[in-house]
Amino acid sequence: MAIESLPTFTKPARQRWESIPSNIRQRLLSNVWGGHCHHETTITNFSGNIKGGDLLLVGKCAECRGDVARVIEGS
Description:
Blueprint: E1 8-9, H1 11-18, H2 22-29, E2 32-34, E3 39-41, E4 43-51, E5 54-61, E6 67-72
Parallel strand pairs: 1-4
Antiparallel strand pairs: 2-3, 4-5, 5-6
């Protein structure tokens, strides 16, 4: 059984992430495009920071463990 690390966020990224309702956060995490798998997957072992006003989550594909990212546009 794999042990996942707790997400590491910059302070602004954590504030943005926590402002999103829990059910929406779960949907965002499970709706990531796997470039290697070529289908929707879940991001694991992710970190977050703000880039150009958007929240960027970078982590691993739950299936193939390849690198994946999720951009959550700023409001």
